[in-house]
Predict the 3D structure of the following.
Amino acid sequence: MDLDKYLKAAERAAKKAGLMLIQNIRSNREISFKGEVNLVTNFDKQSQEIIHDSLLSVFPDHDIISEEGLKKEEGSDFKWIVDPIDGTTNYVHGFPVFCISIAVEREGETLVGIVLDPVRDELFTAKRGGGACLNKKKIHVSDIDELDKSLLTTGFPYDIRESELNNLDHFSNFAVRCQAIRRCGSAALDLCYVACGRADGFWEMKLSPWDTAAGALIVKEAGGCVTDFHNQRFHSGKKQVLASNGKIHKQMLEVLKLGKI
Ligand code: IPD
Ligand code: CA
Ligand code: CA
């Protein structure tokens, strides 16, 4: 199957939306709250519209879902999964770590995934069976094989204040086992950073398909390993994700077992 046409359409859509996000990074935002600490802005919605229009102009028969509610579900075999801004809290504060994430699945299998960081102009891409790239150059996971020497990333769920399943237990368990942990604020970029070896592992719970669909394929195609916390095969419907360079995967699973999973 020619996957390049999906890749090109996703890139074009993400670049249009990315430009709009960069142009508005200092503009006033209209912020509404989906929860106590879960924000959405007019720019999430604008980005979503740009991406939908762009993708559907090329593939009018395909289905599409995205985080801020725009969707078309008419039983197509092809489904686009879009996060119009992954890292909205960062975007709102002007903290320059956010991205656009787009994947297309066919009958549940991710064919293509792209993540665009418009601040650094970094485009992470992957085609099923075709490897992963950063700005068109092949990328590969790191080869750190000891948890003790690893740099990890994670994130926290929006119900952190209400739920006991809030990742704080895993965070403190990992903090004393690895070299350091970073909380960047964008799960899609966290996954891409594992893919290109800037981080060695990433775990998070309560994620949604738009957070993980593209990034998980990018990690796998870069030679990494992606599962849930029980070492079962990951697919974008799963809320738990453990992604690593493969070499520290078992050690990370052992630490996760110490907390609530
Ligand atoms: C969030 C980010 C964050 C992660 C949250 C996600 P959003 O996505 O990826 O890093 O910790 O779990 O929901 O809301 O900015 O699209
Ligand atoms: Ca997200
Ligand atoms: Ca989002």
